[in-house]
């Protein structure tokens, strides 16, 4: 994995002729001169886009280049002696950045490292000017994006230790990102307090999730993809409907994997073993293989992962310990082709399977969770992405298909007071397509596109006493969503720029009960057009200070919910909901150059006709519009770099939310929104030191606090959770092609109730707790070759 260097700039030199950069050898005849001029001529003669982002770097003397070479070799020669290096964003786009500064003392050169893993400390949350925000679907840098974004850059060692936790591992790095803790593969993820409920159901997700440009989910829990060989994760806060459509009320999480290297073979492997105090042993193995198929034109990258998280819940009355291990395995296969009649093609397949045999909750007083409450998740994704330059712009077209099957079983004896069970099976299919054209400069990007998505969900519910179900119901939700969208940024003055955008959506939703057929429950049809807008101002007065003001809108479609009860089948519709966000943010300092940097955002969300997946007093699920919500808060991050080897980061948020409840849950009036703490924070320290030639030591420590929250809305679900702190520490030795790491999670063995839910049929007893994972020791090794 190539390390993304962060060097800010006041101006940029961009040369683009609108054709794919040839990867074959070609002739160059460029005399020595300023690097900015030489880079421009390399771009002009190769048909590539070559960007110099630092004005001081652009003035340095380049020896030029003459002869017949591939583009990479031509750039290497042109950059000789300049202290700069080329970063290929893709086959036709190159960024020239300062080369890493090395220690003054002479050391032996390390062996070259494959691009699968950079020699960096654990993931760093950055907000620098030259980090490209690819999630805005066009050119743009974080420092000029009028909104809150977090970018987590990953290194191989961290993803080895935490990859098997999937998205939950990211929530431990970003305090404003939270999730339910029902278990991997069945959790809901929330961004900055935009949380509808703690339960899974037919409503569309409040947070959008993407792998690159491909949508991962529509109305399903987080598939929790393994993070091994992932390059970075972008979290864009707030409604993103103008760019991403429905289902992005709280924002989006975008996973960016490493892409195939077309020029050289590389490989990596890692293994991790863990022991949980009072629990069991677990571990994980990962492997990556990168193969050029036709050098410089076609390449493939294959990532394999398999592991088991140790169990830590006991059931002594049943004679069983550690009943809740979670097993997972999967792969990502990516095929890339460049210079194919000017196109760059990416073809991929993703598979992720997660399963567990029991819940990870305990009962406070007497009784024990049943052993047999299995969960299975089988996720598959196939996609095709095509990219081509058109003049100074870029065309990107992406088509994808998703198949997601889920099976959940709960012990339901509390419902009938005799041994019984409840089971839900979901079969979800998604077809999506998007084509867009983007262009402009860093200060004035634009994008216009069209998209279409079809989602089909079949949910089967059953209640039984033996292996034969007593009551069954199957319902179908089909959604067709087509849209035209655009977004543009234009300078109003030398210091102020305006961003406007919108999305015109036509959506049709059909919901009906498939089995059994009941005449008095007609199908529900909803269709209509909706326009969502975004308006933002970005102020760059110069110096270390900048600010932004933003308004965004988001929405979700309505539908039909059907569920079995003791008196028969019940069905009801729920209306669409909308969310308006207003945000004021400031930035002080530069995280790459300033010793001290700070960012903060003040926000207010207004949520109308809030949809929520709920459970009734007996534990059976249903969906309703629970009322209108208000969320007011502030989040901030402070970063201090006293030396080049030491970084201290502090992040925190404060949320205040209230629900004006509807007739569906009148007891919830005035309550806070569910499952999001009123406050939280994280303090982290990262240190790195070169011990000798080819040997680097790094150490990290972090403390995070999760404030108190409520499980749900209404008197029956007004159950407290949260209010705990955890400390993680770790050390690593980097030998160049091998990294050894030792980490202690929850080092103080803190105890806390992370989630007050494990079984819907007894949750009203208020005795369910999902404990914080006890102290866990992890030993890992990463190898590259």
Top keywords for this entry?
disordered N terminus; 785 residues; Maltoporin, Chain A; Phage tail protein beta-alpha-beta fold; six-stranded mixed β-sheet; Ferric Hydroxamate Uptake Protein, Chain A, domain 1; globular; mainly beta
Low-confidence stretches: 1-23, 101-122, 124-129
Give the structural class. Answer: mainly beta
**CATH architecture label name of the largest domain:** Beta Barrel
The percent range for strand residues is over 45%
General form: globular
How many helical stretches? 7
Number of domains: 3
Q: How far is it from the N-terminal to the C-terminal residue, by CA?
A: 12 Å
Helix content: under 10%
Q: What profile does the largest beta sheet have?
A: 22 strands, antiparallel, barrel
CATH class of the largest domain reads: Mainly Beta
CATH-defined topology of the largest domain = Maltoporin, Chain A
Q: What is the radius of gyration computed over CA atoms, rounded to a whole number of angstroms?
A: 26 Å
Mean pLDDT: 85
Question: CATH H-level name of the largest domain... which superfamily?
Answer: TonB-dependent receptor, beta-barrel domain
Counting DSSP E segments of at least 2 residues, the number of strands comes to 43
């Amino acid at each position: 994995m190539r390390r993304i260097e962060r060097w800010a700039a006041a101006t940029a030199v961009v040369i683009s002729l609108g054709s794919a950069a040839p990867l074959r050898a070609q002739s160059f005849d460029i005399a020595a001169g300023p690097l900015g001029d030489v880079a421009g001529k390399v771009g002009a003669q190769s048909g590539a886009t070559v960007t110099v982002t630092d004005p001081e770097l652009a003035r340095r003397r380049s020896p030029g280049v003459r002869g017949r070479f591939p583009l990479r070799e031509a750039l290497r020669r042109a950059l000789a002696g300049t202290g700069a290096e080329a970063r290929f964003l893709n086959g036709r786009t190159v960024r020239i950045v300062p080369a890493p500064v090395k220690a003054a003392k002479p050391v032996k050169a390390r062996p070259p490292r494959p691009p699968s893993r950079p020699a960096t400390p654990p993931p760093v949350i950055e907000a620098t000017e030259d980090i490209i925000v690819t999630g805005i679907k066009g050119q743009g840098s974080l420092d000029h994006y009028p909104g809150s974004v977090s970018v987590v850059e990953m290194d191989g060692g961290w993803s080895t230790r935490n990859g098997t936790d999937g998205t939950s591992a990211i929530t431990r790095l970003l305090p404003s990102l939270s999730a339910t803790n029902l278990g991997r593969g069945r959790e809901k993820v929330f961004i900055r307090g935009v949380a509808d409920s703690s339960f899974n159901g037919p409503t569309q997700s409040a947070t959008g999730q993407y792998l690159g440009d491909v949508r991962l989910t529509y109305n399903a829990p987080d598939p929790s993809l393994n993070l091994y060989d992932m390059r970075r994760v972008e979290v864009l806060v707030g409604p993103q409907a103008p760019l991403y459509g429905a289902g992005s009320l709280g924002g989006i999480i975008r996973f960016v994997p490493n892409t195939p290297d077309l020029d050289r073979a590389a490989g990596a492997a890692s293994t991790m073993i863990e022991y949980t105090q009072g629990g069991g042993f677990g571990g994980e193995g990962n492997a990556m293989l990168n193969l050029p198929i036709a050098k410089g034109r076609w390449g493939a990258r294959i990532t394999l992962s398999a592991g088991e998280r140790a169990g830590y819940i006991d059931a002594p009355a049943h004679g069983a310990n550690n009943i809740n291990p979670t097993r997972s395995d999967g792969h990502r296969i990516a095929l890339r082709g460049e210079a194919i009649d000017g196109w760059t093609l990416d073809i991929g397949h993703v598979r992720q399977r997660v399963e567990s045999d029991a819940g990870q909750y305990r009962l406070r007083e007497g009784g024990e969770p049943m052993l047999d409450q299995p969960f299975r998740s089988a996720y598959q994704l196939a996609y095709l992405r095509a990219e081509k330059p058109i003049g100074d712009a870029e065309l990107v077209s992406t088509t994808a298909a998703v198949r997601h099957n889920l099976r959940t079983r709960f012990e339901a004896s509390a419902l009938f007071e005799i041994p019984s069970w409840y089971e839900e099976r979901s079969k979800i299919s998604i077809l999506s397509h998007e084509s867009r054209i983007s262009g402009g400069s860093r200060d004035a990007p634009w994008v216009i596109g069209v998209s279409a998505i079809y989602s089909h969900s079949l949910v089967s519910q059953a209640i039984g006493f033996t292996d034969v179900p007593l009551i069954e119901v199957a319902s179908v939700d089909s959604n067709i969503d087509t849209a035209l969208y655009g977004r543009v940024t234009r300078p109003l003055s030398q210091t102020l720029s305006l961003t406007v955008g919108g999305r015109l959506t036509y959506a049709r939703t059909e919901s009906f009960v498939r089995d059994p057929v009941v005449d008095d429950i007609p199908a529900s049809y909803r269709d209509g057009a909706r326009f969502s807008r975004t308006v933002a101002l970005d102020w760059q007065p110069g110096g270390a200070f900048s600010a932004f003001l933003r308004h965004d809108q988001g929405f979700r479609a309505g539908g039909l919910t059907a569920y079995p009860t003791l008196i028969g089948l019940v069905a009801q519709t729920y209306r669409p909901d909308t969310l308006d966000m207003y945000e004021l943010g400031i930035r002080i300092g530069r995280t790459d150059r300033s010793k001290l940097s700070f960012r903060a955002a003040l926000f207010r969300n207004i949520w109308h006709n809030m949809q929520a997946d709920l459970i009734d007093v007996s534990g059976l699920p249903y969906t309703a519009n629970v009322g209108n919500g208000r969320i007011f808060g502030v989040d901030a991050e402070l970063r201090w770099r006293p030396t080049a080897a030491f970084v201290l980061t502090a992040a925190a948020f404060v949320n205040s939310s209230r629900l004006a409840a509807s007739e569906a849950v009148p007891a919830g009036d005035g309550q806070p929104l569910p499952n999001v703490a009123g406050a939280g924070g994280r303090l982290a320290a990262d240190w790195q030191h070169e011990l000798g030639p080819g040997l680097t030591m790094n150490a990290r420590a972090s403390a995070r606090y999760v404030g108190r929250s409520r499980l749900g809305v209404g008197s029956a679900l007004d159950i407290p959770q949260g209010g705990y702190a955890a400390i993680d520490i770790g050390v690593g030795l980097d030998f160049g092609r091998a990294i050894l790491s030792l980490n202690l999670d929850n080092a103080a063995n803190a105890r806390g109730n992370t989630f007050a839910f494990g079984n819907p049929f007894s949750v009203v007893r208020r005795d369910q707790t999902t404990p914080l994972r006890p102290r866990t020791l992890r030993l890992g090794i990463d190898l590259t070759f």
